[in-house]
């Protein structure tokens, strides 16, 4: 099957002469979750802005659902690819949260009945019931960000791009983002994440694309990529804290990747008997 | 480290106009000179408002009814203006876009110092020093608005650091930074201590806070729920979970092993502590 998003030999040079991405090849198929990782300035955001035609390749080609992004209008692409910006100020512009939530559906001429259904669901997930009449600019940035995500949820585009969705979110907000990604995935959407949040990636254990100095340097599943400490060092990435711990516990199974708290608890569950016989587990500090 | 009190907050209550309940309720805490305090809490718990009370932005610019007293180095600040406080308490805002106003990076850093009447020579020296500290050397002539979010965040920190305040407050200063950038900011926080400065940081980064902060204050719905060392605070997992908050991953892991498998490794709060606590000589 043809991949839904196909990036072929793409470079992008900004008008000021800075080359932000160089010779990137990438294919994303139906139903995939792909996280784009890399340090600030590595080209992550530039890359994903090519998916909805916000940026056009300087050389090379990007096709989305068989459309060449260079030849299509952004309006047409945006019904396919929804983009939630890192900075919510770049996204929200209407005077009430309610209008913000309905705007996308209206714009795409989605039926009233369907719009109601989707907006209602978004309101529930993000607990926006009491904020519908509020001006988004009176709310704090993490709430504004959630409104951006809720609006995309209402549009429900084929591809959802979330740029730093957990930035500035509290623990509950982060869990909600995880839930949102899983929900989009279950409904058959393609989810593209741009993030520094390694706990989120650990929980998803999804496909990971690593950008470094404007080039793609890795493309594999998180558990494979995170095992490669050399690579993480090159790209200035830090695995989830439990994985840093697991890397130093020699008795764990070296063939496994311990990306989550769950995975380590599970190991202890299976090996508890052996532990009890030894009675050598520390008493802590 | 001296034993002088840097910040003493007593009975602090603050209420915005036209609201029914205060956003800060009867807050007490004391921070010693040279200590770094981490403030954690859910979105909307009052963290930023509390921090803004410390440099008088609340209630002089952001108005409302403030009760109780705040002393900075033994002086009651209730009659001071924000400008008065500027050389004592530096503030790095959550959204750097709101803080940056100048045409170039070096002018941005010079701006705050200019208001303090610092000599040109000294300014030049401090611009270079702070740019190095935040990893922005070579950016002197760039426009602040052309920088990435992470770079803007570091510039905002540099321009406050250059003023050499006795107390430095940072409101989620690392939210847009990559892991290296986050570490750099937390290292700056550590350096603050070697300069004898006192730090206050608001963040959701519990793992970094556990290793860099001396004290943690947990705010929920405007009340201080806990105040103590990271060890004391992060060991209270049940309480944290009730507030939909979390402890460092290694602490969470240890807690689950205790509850689900009756394996007790104590409550490590950093990777180093956890490695020690989890040391098992051999397993069959």
From TrEMBL, chain A:
SUPFAM superfamilies, alphabetized: P-loop containing nucleoside triphosphate hydrolases (SSF52540)
Topology in the lipid bilayer: Peripheral membrane protein
Subcellular location as annotated: Cell membrane
GO MF, any single term: ATPase-coupled transmembrane transporter activity
Family annotation (Gene3D superfamilies): P-loop containing nucleotide triphosphate hydrolases
Alphabetical list of SMART domains matching this protein: AAA (SM00382)
GO cellular-component term (any): ATP-binding cassette (ABC) transporter complex
Domain ABC transporter: 5-238
PROSITE patterns the record matches: ABC_TRANSPORTER_2
UniProtKB keywords: ATP-binding, Cell membrane, Membrane, Nucleotide-binding, Translocase, Transport
Family to which this protein belongs: Belongs to the ABC transporter superfamily.
Name of the protein this chain belongs to: ATP-binding cassette domain-containing protein
Organism: Neobacillus thermocopriae
UniProtKB/TrEMBL annotation, chain B:
Keyword DNA-binding: no
GO annotations of cellular component type: ATP-binding cassette (ABC) transporter complex
InterPro entries: AAA+_ATPase, ABC_transporter-like_ATP-bd, ABC_transporter-like_CS, ABC_transpr_CbiO/EcfA_su, ECF_ABC_transporter_ATP-bd, P-loop_NTPase
CDD domains documented for this protein: ABC_cobalt_CbiO_domain1
Gene3D superfamilies (UniProt xref): P-loop containing nucleotide triphosphate hydrolases
Pfam families: ABC_tran
Membrane topology: Peripheral membrane protein
PROSITE patterns: ABC_TRANSPORTER_1 (PS00211), ABC_TRANSPORTER_2 (PS50893)
Domain ABC transporter: 7-246
Main location: membrane
GO MF annotation terms: ATP binding; ATP hydrolysis activity; ATPase-coupled transmembrane transporter activity; cobalt ion transmembrane transporter activity
Compartment(s): Cell membrane
Keywords from the named record: ATP-binding, Cell membrane, Membrane, Nucleotide-binding, Translocase, Transport
Family, as annotated: Belongs to the ABC transporter superfamily.
Record PANTHER family: ENERGY-COUPLING FACTOR TRANSPORTER ATP-BINDING PROTEIN ECFA1 (PTHR43553:SF24), HEAVY METAL TRANSPORTER (PTHR43553)
Name under which the protein is recorded: ATP-binding cassette domain-containing protein
Source organism of this protein record: Neobacillus thermocopriae
């Amino acid at each position: 099957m043809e991949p839904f998003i196909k990036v072929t030999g793409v470079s992008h040079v900004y008008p000021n002469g800075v080359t932000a991405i160089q010779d990137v090849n990438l294919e994303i198929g139906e139903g995939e979750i792909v996280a784009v990782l890399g340090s600030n300035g590595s080209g992550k955001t530039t890359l994903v802005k090519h998916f909805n035609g916000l940026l056009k390749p300087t050389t090379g080609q990007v096709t989305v659902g068989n459309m060449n992004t260079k030849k299509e209008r952004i309006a047409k692409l945006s019904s396919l690819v929804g983009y939630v910006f890192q900075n919510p100020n770049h996204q929200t512009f209407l005077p009430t949260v309610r209008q913000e939530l309905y705007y996308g559906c209206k714009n795409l001429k989605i039926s009233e009945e369907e719009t109601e259904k989707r907006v209602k669901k978004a309101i529930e997930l993000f607990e926006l019931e009491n904020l519908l009449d509020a001006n988004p600019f009176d709310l704090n940035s993490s709430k504004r960000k959630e409104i951006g995500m809720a609006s995309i949820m209402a549009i429900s585009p084929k591809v959802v791009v979330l740029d730093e969705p957990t930035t500035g979110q509290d623990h509950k907000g982060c869990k909600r983002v995880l839930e949102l990604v899983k929900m989009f995935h279950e409904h058959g959407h393609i989810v593209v994440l741009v993030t520094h949040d390694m706990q989120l990636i650990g929980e998803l254990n999804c496909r990971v694309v690593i950008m470094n100095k404007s080039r793609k340097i890795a493309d594999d599943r998180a558990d494979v990529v995170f095992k490669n400490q050399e690579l993480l060092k090159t790209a200035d990435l830090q695995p989830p804290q439990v994985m840093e711990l697991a890397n130093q516990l020699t008795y764990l199974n070296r063939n496994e990747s311990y990306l989550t708290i769950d995975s380590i608890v599970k190991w202890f569950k299976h090996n508890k008997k052996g532990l009890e016989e030894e009675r050598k587990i520390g008493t802590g500090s | 480290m001296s034993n002088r009190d840097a910040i003493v907050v007593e009975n602090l209550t603050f209420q915005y106009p036209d609201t029914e309940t205060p956003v800060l309720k009867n807050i007490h805490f004391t921070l010693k000179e040279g200590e770094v305090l981490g403030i954690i809490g859910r979105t909307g718990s009052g963290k930023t408002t509390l921090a803004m009370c410390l440099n008088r932005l609340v209630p002089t610019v952001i108005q409302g009814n403030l009760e109780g007293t705040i002393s900075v180095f033994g002086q009651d600040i209730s009659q001071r203006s924000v400008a008065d406080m500027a050389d004592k308490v530096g503030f790095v805002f959550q959204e750097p876009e709101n803080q940056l106003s100048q045409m170039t990076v070096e002018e941005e850093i010079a701006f705050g110092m200019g208001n303090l009447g610092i000599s040109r020579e000294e300014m030049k020296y401090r611009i270079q020093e702070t740019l190095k500290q935040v990893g922005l050397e070579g950016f002197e002539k760039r426009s602040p608005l052309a920088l990435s979010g992470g770079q803007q965040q570091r510039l905002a920190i540099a321009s406050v650091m250059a003023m050499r305040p006795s107390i430095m407050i940072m409101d989620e200063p690392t939210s847009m930074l990559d892991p290296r950038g986050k570490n750099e900011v937390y290292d700056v926080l550590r350096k603050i201590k070697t300069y004898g400065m006192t730090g206050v940081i608001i963040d959701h980064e519990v793992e970094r806070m556990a290793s860099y902060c001396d004290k943690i204050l947990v705010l929920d719905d405007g009340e201080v729920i806990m105040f103590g060392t990271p060890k004391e605070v992060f060991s209270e997992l049940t309480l944290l979970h009730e507030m939909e908050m979390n402890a460092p991953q290694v602490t969470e892991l240890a807690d689950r092993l205790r509850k689900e498998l009756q394996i007790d490794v104590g409550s490590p709060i950093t990777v180093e502590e956890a490695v020690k606590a989890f040391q098992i000589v051999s397993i069959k």
